[in-house]
Design brief:
Two copies of one chain form a homodimer. The first copy, chain A, is an alpha/beta fold. Chain A folds into two domains: 167 residues, Rossmann fold (3-Layer(aba) Sandwich); 201 residues, Dehydroquinate synthase-like - alpha domain (Dehydroquinate synthase-like, alpha domain), CATH 1.20.1090. In chain A, 46% of the residues lie in helices and 12% in strands. In chain A, the strands form two sheets. A six-stranded parallel β-sheet of chain A has the order 2-9-6-5-3-4, with helices on both faces. A two-stranded antiparallel ribbon of chain A has the order 7-8. The radius of gyration of chain A is 20 Å and the shape is globular. Chain A starts with a strand and ends with a helix. The interface between A and B is large, with 39 and 39 residues.
Amino acid sequence: MLNFDFYNPTRILFGQQRIADIDKHIAKSAKVLVLYGGGSVKATGTLQEVLTALGERTVLQFGGIEPNPSYETLMGAVEIVKQQNIDFLLAVGGGSVIDGTKFVAAASVYQGDARDILKTRGGVIKHALPMGAVLTLSATGSEMNNGGVVTQKDTHTKSAFFSQHTFPQFAVLDPTKTYTLPARQLANGVVDAFVHITEQYLTYPVNAPVQDRFAEGLLLTLIELGQQAVHNPTDYDLRANLMWVATLALNGLIGAGVPQDWSTHMIGHELTALYNIDHARTLAIVLPAMLTVRQDAKRDKLLQYAQRVWQITEGDEQQRITLAISKTKDFFNGLGVDTQLSAYDLNESHIDTIIQQLSAHKMVALGEKREVTPEVSRQVLMLCL
Amino acid sequence: MLNFDFYNPTRILFGQQRIADIDKHIAKSAKVLVLYGGGSVKATGTLQEVLTALGERTVLQFGGIEPNPSYETLMGAVEIVKQQNIDFLLAVGGGSVIDGTKFVAAASVYQGDARDILKTRGGVIKHALPMGAVLTLSATGSEMNNGGVVTQKDTHTKSAFFSQHTFPQFAVLDPTKTYTLPARQLANGVVDAFVHITEQYLTYPVNAPVQDRFAEGLLLTLIELGQQAVHNPTDYDLRANLMWVATLALNGLIGAGVPQDWSTHMIGHELTALYNIDHARTLAIVLPAMLTVRQDAKRDKLLQYAQRVWQITEGDEQQRITLAISKTKDFFNGLGVDTQLSAYDLNESHIDTIIQQLSAHKMVALGEKREVTPEVSRQVLMLCL
């Protein structure tokens, strides 16, 4: 096992009817800005439930945070925070709203150009406003971690940032709040959580059996429940288990003490920034190709994955690895998520642009062994066509 | 899945050579009391390493915290804290030292009789001194949770307490610090962690597949590594994995959203308080008997345990359950831990006293369904002879 630090102070309030409990975890005197995305939190009544829970506190609202939240939009919220002396931020939504709120929390108290936060991957963050989250979509894990991803529209750049100051103080995880989500978003959530796990699991062995078992447990649960959860919108247990898996997939636990990859995410970010493909769908395209191209470096873990996650025990090593990758792809397809660039009208002619963007963003030595060069990324993208 | 709160702000500093890092996590101006047990932390050099890391801070020491730390001893530390205006406590040791330090942290600032903390199971704790831990023995999980157990010698009473104010702020987990432990203590640690897991796993199903998979992953790892870890004192990975398992076995994660039992612990506490049997050894005695007596209430989970943890697939349900319990017992015995009261010179004549103590301590409706009455406890103890 590798040396590691693990720190995660976010308080999880899990279950039905938990929104009212936010009252216990925000100062009575706080001046709160509630941040959300489109109109769905209004239509479903979740926003009103939050406002009721906040009681007599002074509350302002900031709506319109888009999927893949943009620097440009978020700076509008930063302006309000500064002008109105807001001292608590409450995100109501999915990963984009929570990521965006983390950025606002840091940018509102940063002395200087807020783009520094993105340029330094959060390194300049020395403090941030306190924040909480009410989750309405299981996918990114942002509700219980300290990271976010923000897009600068002008340069088609998606930038990740991290800081120990940007953990939500609490997160309400009420599975019933996901009942009204469209199947497409649910399927995206399953894929997003799945690939968060593989980025931390499918690398190389460092004798960390607990991390392996936990990652496998999460993957097995997603495989068992994924399709059912997408198609049974009001089955509480399915939604609850999916929600808890997605949170645990990226709260730091399964990645503590093991190597991590993240090259699939980095290439996926370019696809979203350039062509506006849903984040999860970019992962479903890139992951199978990445595993295929890098199977020698990942051989031991791929064989373990084949056996423990897909119960593949027949065939030689090459056959087992190929079958495991193929089953991964089938799983994504079975959720209604395409796994080829052609499904998004992209072809070989677009690859140069993607590679150029990777280079422009210094994504030239990716993966757990830093061996995903632009040339390897090109091989991967060719397999995605 | 049941509704739950999960909150665990302890920062884990895991790996070799991490003691020096405590310097970053204690205020430079802090007046520190270092608490420890017997002389082993002196003999091994760990205490000196801690003192070096604390640098120029004012540091006092309090040694002599015994296994199953006593109220009487700990009140001596409380006296020092008050007289010397100590403002940070640093536990250096195993579960007993860390549990005791939590009690000191709360009792030092409690206005009233410190026994109230034990009588109310921590309910009266409204604040506590900040504390950290340097772990030297993997077993109890106290390094990353908010609970402790303290013995009042005068009444032979072991009392558990919990408070959100008694989490260690940080815990250093350096596996090399366990190299010098005697095999007996290591074996105890494996059993203790094992039974912490079964108390949260072997109850009844509530459709919580992730919690099940995590618990099974921890049990499988203990079974794979337990004996090896006991007999290979300087194998880093074995000790590291054992350490991380024991921490995760009782940090709140696998018990979140599921029923919990803890009747084996409550009966075990009486055995320790009356007859001074090592805590883990009392668990090894009681657990197999408890599972046998309560197998109807635990049927579904016992069958899952048989299949997933012990790979038992042959035989009818009764045979599989019986074999799983028998393998559990064999596992403890294989570690050199006895599983019968007779090994400690106890016989049927002692059972009345144990039952009387359970009743005196109001332990009359134990377990996940509150159905472990004194009569059921008697049946269990008869099977332990």
